[in-house]
Amino acid sequence: MYSRDIVEETFRLKALGLTDRAIAEQCGVSVQALRHWRYGTRRSPQTEADRTAYCPVCGTGALDPAAYVYLLGLYLGGGYIGRIRNGVDYLSIACCDTWPGLIEECARTISTVFPVGAFQVRRQGCTEVKGTSKHWRCIFPQNGKGMKHSRPIILEPWQQEAVDECPEPFIRGLIHSDGCRVSNRVRKKTDGGWKYYEYPRYFFSNTSQDISNLLVHALDRLGISWRRRVEVKLPNRDAFIVSVSKRAAVARMDEFVGPKY
Known about the structure:
Largest sheet: 4 strands, antiparallel
Structural class: alpha+beta
Helix content: 40-55%
Number of strands: 8
Number of helices: 11
Oligomer: single chain
Shape: globular
Radius of gyration: 21 Å
Order of helices and strands: HHHHHEEHEEHHHEEHEEH
Distance between the termini: 37 Å
């Protein structure tokens, strides 16, 4: 049985592009063990039972509420669950390479929610942060066929309870996935000519009205004022845009969201 530190190190080295053989030699483990950890291949019954215990649905585990709702926000905005084999799934969260701090925070959160190693897959312009488990569908029952905007996205009662308990990290996860904090520049005509004003505001854009509704519900619980409008982005697909622009509301958001990094 290898320590969690060794397992995490193998995922880190894989994200750096090392081959399985090079990682095995450096960490003193077998190539087969590496692939077991990454793809979830067969384990002993006792090991499998231990790995099931952490799931709050199938086992007796308990989720970290703040970490879970943050990851839920990331998943709803830019994540999906795929199947590897033997009932093992991978959770994938797409992160823009412009914000390396968010990539690292996403990886830490995955490992906090479930005791699995998170690893990164580089794509053109973005990075997929992934973690394998047989229980992602247990805690993200919103998974389904097709794009999220094409099907209902409704939280289970226990999920809604977690969001209501920790609305701040949930909002933060949504903004980190499909939102931003920008400086809005406007002009106003006065007797002395045009004057320009600049002020910060938050935007969130998603083509699922249900996901947009989840955001504004969480904002309402914190007393943060917001506005919403609908824009046509593609044929038969509208974008629901939520903005937070009042000074007090932006200041409240800055307390727990702030600019991306």
